[in-house]
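Fold it.
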Amino acid sequence: MKAVIEFGFSELVIKVNPTNKIMEKSITNVLPGIYAPWPEAKHKGTVELEIVGDTLRTLLTELCHNYQQVNSDFIPYDQNTNQVNLDYEVLVNGNEYSVFGLDTKLKENDKIKVSCCTQYFA
């Protein structure tokens, strides 16, 4: 699946297989670690990923893998416990992920928001 990530201050907004073109946006106030795996995002405001799989768990696992490669503390999903870390909020189309479960299949134009609830991360 294609995932387009838009960056906010301490959150990611991810659109799955968007049918409309995602416009680049300027980033004004973002924690530096939020775009650490994708340095080009600092200027573009967005990044596009191709992810093998179509579940929320797969998406979160891929995000964590990218952040771990640059030693960032932005780790919303704990692969050891198979749970979303307590310092994060994950919404799927505006609803808490637990309504659907981590193995829910993501569809075209689904919008996932991953927010860090702690103040700082590296």
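The mean pLDDT is 86.
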